[in-house]
């Protein structure tokens, strides 16, 4: 079914996306059916996903773009500010941008699940993930990589690229773990809930790149 243009902005569609992202984050996209999503969202009609989005695959793509576009806008804005002030002047400056923009998902409805969702999707269906980005929603990340290549210690380009691959996996894995812990409301998480932890995380990421 072709998704009606008016449906993505409805409260029902927003609720479906929020629930789907959480379920995908917990089980992976292959472990969740459209029926699971509809039931968890309180929809009596199990065809709700098809009605609002056309298909499960289309819903997945829209979720990727929702979060990625938000992150990319904030990331580019942060880099614009740094560059206007003559920076970034250190690896840590760029790493802090990468982390801060990855966790600032306010207003998307995906605050407690997006990092886990994309990490799992990127591992299980990397082509689906990259196709959803379509080369349009990662410009800020690519700008960060260019600054990092400039600021990292002198080493062969191939080694720099390896470290940047390690950094991407480290960034996604740690933030997904943090997100999973904070989604557990049954107990306190003093380590993951502290801003100081993110600062320490940034320090270790910078160390990985500068060693």
Automatic annotation (TrEMBL):
Keywords: DNA-binding. Residues 19-63 form the HTH tetR-type domain. GO terms for molecular function: DNA-binding transcription factor activity; transcription cis-regulatory region binding. InterPro entries: Homeodomain-like_sf (IPR009057), HTH-type_TetR-like_transc_reg (IPR050109), HTH_TetR (IPR001647). This is TetR family transcriptional regulator. It comes from Caulobacter mirabilis.
């Amino acid at each position: 079914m072709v998704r009606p243009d008016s449906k993505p902005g409805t409260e029902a569609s927003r609720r479906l996306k929020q629930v789907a992202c959480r379920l995908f984050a917990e089980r992976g996209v292959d472990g969740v059916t459209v029926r699971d999503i509809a039931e968890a969202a309180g929809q009596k009609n199990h065809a709700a996903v098809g009605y609002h989005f056309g298909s499960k695959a289309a819903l997945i793509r829209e979720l990727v773009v929702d979060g990625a576009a938000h992150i990319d806008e904030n990331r580019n804005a942060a880099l614009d500010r740094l560059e206007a002030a003559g920076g970034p002047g250190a690896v840590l400056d760029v790493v802090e941008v990468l982390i801060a923009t990855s966790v600032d998902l306010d207003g998307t409805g995906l605050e407690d699940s997006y990092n886990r969702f994309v990490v799992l999707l990127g591992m299980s269906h990397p082509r689906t993930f990259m196709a959803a980005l379509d080369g349009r929603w990662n410009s800020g990340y690519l700008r960060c990589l260019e600054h990092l290549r400039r600021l990292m210690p002198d080493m062969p380009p191939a080694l720099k690229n390896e470290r940047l691959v390690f950094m991407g996996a480290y960034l996604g894995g740690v933030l997904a773990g943090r997100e999973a812990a904070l989604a557990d409301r049954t107990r306190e998480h003093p380590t993951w809930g502290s801003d100081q932890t993110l600062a320490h995380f940034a320090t270790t990421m910078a160390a990985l790149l500068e060693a």
